[in-house]
Amino acid sequence: MTASISRLSSGDHAAVYIKRLIFDQHLKAGDRVPQDDVASALGISRIPVREALIALEREGWVTIEMHRGAFVNDFDEQAVRDHYTLFGLVYGFAARRALDRDTARELASVLDELLARVKGSDDPAAIGSATLAFHDAIIEAARSPRIRTILGAMSGLIPGNFFAAVPGATAVERDGLTAITRAVKRGDGEAAAKEYEKMLKRHGDLVVDLFRSRGFFAA
Length: 219
Known about the structure:
Layout: H1 10-23, H2 35-42, H3 46-58, E1 62-65, E2 69-72, H4 77-100, H5 104-119, H6 124-142, H7 145-152, H8 162-165, H9 169-186, H10 189-213
Antiparallel strand pairs: 1-2
Helix pairs in contact: 1-3, 2-3, 4-6, 4-10, 5-6, 5-9, 9-10
C-alpha cells in the first residue's frame, strides 16, 4: 500500500517498471538493471531511468556501483517487515493527529462510506481505490503537511494492485479498516493508531509469505 499520488513522473513510472521486472523474476538478485532496455520499453530517455534507480537504491531495491551500473539486491525478510511497520506507525500517528483536531464525527461519516465500498466489492481495483481514499481521508483530517510528505516518499513494495497480488490482503484490510473506523467513532486516537499498526503488520506478514514463495529471500 502507498499514499495516494495524483500523477506519476517518468522517473516514477520507470521505478514501478523496474520493480515489476524484479517482482516477476525477470531480474534477480545480482543482475544488472538494463537501463537502455528500460528506457526503450517506456519510450523515455535514460535520465528518468537514472532518477528511478537512485530512488530504488534509497529504498534498498538496487545498489549503484560507479562505472558499472545498478545491480538488484537480495531481499531481506526483516526489511520487508520494517517497511510495513513504518507505514503503520506513520498512519497511526496521522490517526492520532486527526482526532486531536476534534474531527471525529465528520471523519467517521467519511470513513463509514468508504468502508462500505471496501466491503461491498470483490474487485481489486475498486477495493484499492476505496482504501486509498480511506487513508487519504485520515491524512487530510490530520492537516499535517509533514505527514503527507513522509508518506509520499514511502513507496509500496508491490508493483501494481496490492489486493490483486497479495493473497489474503483484502480480508486483512477489511478487518483493519473496520476496527479503525470504530476507534474513530469513539474518538479514541490511541486505539485507531494501534489498529493501523496491527493491520500494517499483518500486511507485512502476507508480503513476506508472498516473497518467500517466489524465492526472493537469500538462503
